[in-house]
Amino acid sequence: MQTYSLSQLTEETLKALVTLYERPDVSDKWDDMTLPLNPEEIKLLNYLKSLLQERQLILMNEATLWARAIYPLLVLAEQGHIQAWSGVALRASYPTFELEGEADGALAPCIAGRMHQPYLVVHETKRGLNAPNPQFQLYGEMLAAAWLNWKNDAKIDQEIFGCYTVADSWTFVHGIVGDIETEKPTFTVELSKTYNGVWEAERIVQILKSIVAKYVSIST
What is the mean pLDDT of each run of 10 residues along the chain (220 residues)? Predict the structure, then answer.
């Protein structure tokens, strides 16, 4: 069985492994994700935005941008035992292939100090002319996370969320992975519009909070 590195996935490789269904237009499902922020969250978010508005974000290296503009928004979405994580190792063993690598971040349960199956994975786009397409790396990370959740609950269809960031912009992805035990699983995805991490930070956090709330309602 061949093992594929998440960081090297391409559209061609991914389509050879799974049957990929991509909605051609932007899904409107994200418009319904409007879980409100509480006063403390709004205060923290406004402070963060005031700092980011004074910075040249496009000139920051990836690690600095992650620490200043991406990870703090993930933290604002935490609820109960669902926490934000960085450097998340992922490994999945589908019937005919394996996936292995690391997601830049995730929202996932913390139990006894350990991360359990992630419900949302985050991919920070790498820079450079030869950098891989972030979309298909994220798809691979979502497939790996869906497999981990399937091992935990064995649901026929696994719902999984992801997002990729380009500088301070966010694009969300909703996925359903099916036929996991077959030679070629199915993967259906719907993308959001691209949100600006400064001017639309509140909408980003609302979406993240809605995703966490959905997970909490399912798991309780």
Answer: 92 95 86 91 92 77 89 94 95 96 95 90 80 87 97 91 93 97 96 94 96 80
Q: How far apart are CA 87 and CA 123, in angstroms?
A: 10
What values do phi and psi take at 139, rounded to 5?
Answer: -55, -45
Q: Which residue type, as a one-letter code, is found at position 220?
A: T
Number of CB atoms found within 10 A of residue 124's CB: 22
Measured from the Cβ of residue 155, the count of other Cβ atoms closer than 10 Å reads 14
CA gyration radius, the chain? 17
Q: Is the pTM of this model over 0.90?
A: yes
DSSP 150-208: HHHH--SSEEEEEEEEETTEEEEEEEEEE-TTSSS-EEEEEEEEEEETTTTHHHHHHHH
Annotated domain spans of the chain? 2-219
Q: Looking at the DSSP assignment, which residues form a beta bridge with residue 197?
A: none
For strand 19-22 and strand 114-115, is the pairing parallel, antiparallel, or unpaired?
A: unpaired
| Integer Cα distance of 168 and 165 in angstroms | 6
The helix/strand/coil state of 220 is coil
Buried b (16+ CB within 10 A) or exposed e, 13-27: ebeebbebeeeeeee
Contact call for residues 193 and 25 (beta carbons, < 8 A): no
* Count, residues in the chain: 220
User: d(Cα 7, Cα 94) in Å, to the nearest integer?
Assistant: 18
Whole-angstrom distance, CA of residue 66 vs CA of residue 16? 32
